[in-house]
Amino acid sequence: MTTTLAAPARGLTTVADRAVGRIASRAAHEVAGVAGATASAHVTGGVAALDVRLDLHYPTPVATTTAAVRAHLAERVGALTGLAVSVVDVSVAELRTAAEVTRRVR
Fold it and tell me: What is the pTM of this model?
């Protein structure tokens, strides 16, 4: 016979702000047009607020891409962490040409 514990008896899982930020950074790279991303997060009571800084490929449409990143992060971070995402602040730091993105390894 299997006994299932009620939710309060199972304990609590806490996801660190840094971990949520890393997940958000990786998820931002999944959106077309993103050349680089860094993210930070602040988690309070099961709700995450994200601050994302993007480098975009030039000539990517900035408004369309940032809207896609915002929607994708809200869905993806929520699915991977179980947290509700309340705010996704997106800023574009740089537009990169193809030559800037490709780096030569010596």
Answer: 0.83
Q: What residue ranges define each of the domains in the chain, with the CATH number in brackets? A: 15-98 (3.30.70.1350)
- For the chain, strand residue ranges (E) read 34-44, 47-57, 84-96
How far apart are alpha carbons 3 and 41 in whole angstroms?
Answer: 37
Query: Angle at CA 79, nearest 5°, toward 77 and 95?
Result: 30
Other CB atoms within 10 A of residue 44 CB = 10
Taking only the tens place, the pLDDT of each residue in 19-78 is: 999 999 999 999 999 999 999 999 999 999 999 999 999 999 999 999 999 999 999 999
Give the closest residue to 22 by CA, choosing from 72, 77, 91.
Answer: 77
